[in-house]
């Protein structure tokens, strides 16, 4: 009896994950509004009933996509925090990890900025999920600059985030090498201001 329950539960879980992974790939590479539910269903190799059982609507899937991206970002930051002790090392390595993304062949800009651009209404659940991520990210960076002793940690965090967003845009629109270099310089300047 237990084997039957496990074998039935696993394929259901797998279908849910397959849908989300398919959405992640397509939403990020092609844009959220350009990918329809029928295509998601076909590429995830699930039935329409299975799709609606787990996500109920495309908007719910989009929120799950943004939330999944947020969870990955938080895991990346947690990994950096576990690896590096000082705030300066953490900031430098976070900037370095971001810079490393800019030259990947499948890089299409910031998933959060891309989602926000497609859902500009502040009350839309997708936009709210983006805002939750950006708020957490901003507070995390500000806390690092505060721990570093920066005299204006909020301003330094704003500078970091603007440099990151600009590097994402610059890399996706033109020159990822220049975007990497500019991001690294901006992060180093912000760290240097605190250490001066």
Roughly how much helix do the residues carry, as a percent range?
over 70%
Radius of gyration: 19 Å
**Sheet/helix structural class:** mainly alpha
Written as H for each helix and E for each strand, in order along the chain, the element string is HHHHHHHHH
The CATH class designation of the largest domain is Mainly Alpha
Q: Could you say which overall geometry the principal axes of the C-alpha atoms support?
A: elongated
Q: How many separate domains make up the residues?
A: 2
Summarize the structure.
This is AcrR family transcriptional regulator. This protein is mainly α and 196 residues long.
Structure description:
This protein folds into two domains: 10-56, Orthogonal Bundle (Arc Repressor Mutant, subunit A), CATH 1.10.10; 62-193, Tetracycline Repressor, domain 2 (Orthogonal Bundle). With 196 residues, it is an all-alpha fold. The chain has helices spanning 2-30, 37-44, 48-55, 58-83, 87-101, 111-118, 125-148, 153-173, 176-195.
Question: Helices and strands in order, then pairings?
Answer:
Layout: H1 2-30, H2 37-44, H3 48-55, H4 58-83, H5 87-101, H6 111-118, H7 125-148, H8 153-173, H9 176-195
Helix pairs in contact: 1-2, 1-3, 1-4, 4-7, 5-7, 5-9, 6-7, 7-8, 8-9
Give short descriptive properties of this protein.
196 residues; mainly alpha; Arc Repressor Mutant, subunit A; Tetracycline Repressor, domain 2; 2 domains; 9 helices; 0% strand; elongated; disordered N terminus
């Amino acid at each position: 009896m237990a084997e039957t329950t496990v074998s039935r539960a696993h394929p259901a879980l797998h279908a849910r994950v397959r849908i989300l992974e398919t959405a992640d790939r397509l939403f990020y590479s092609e844009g959220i509004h350009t990918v329809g539910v029928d295509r998601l269903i076909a590429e995830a190799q699930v039935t329409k009933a299975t799709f609606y059982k787990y996500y109920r609507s495309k908007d719910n899937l989009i929120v799950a996509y943004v939330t999944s991206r947020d969870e990955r970002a938080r895991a990346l930051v947690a990994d950096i925090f576990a690896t590096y002790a000082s705030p300066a090392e953490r900031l430098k390595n976070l900037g370095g990890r971001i810079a490393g993304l800019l030259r990947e062949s499948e890089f299409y800009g910031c998933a959060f900025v891309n989602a926000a651009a497609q859902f500009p209404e502040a009350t839309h659940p997708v936009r709210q999920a983006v805002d939750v991520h950006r708020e957490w990210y901003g507070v995390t960076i500000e806390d690092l600059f505060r721990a570093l002793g920066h005299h204006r940690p909020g301003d330094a965090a704003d500078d970091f985030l603007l440099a990151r967003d600009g590097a994402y845009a610059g890399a996706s629109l033109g020159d990822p090498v220049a975007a990497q270099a500019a991001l690294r310089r901006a992060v180093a300047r912000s760290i240097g201001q605190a250490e001066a």
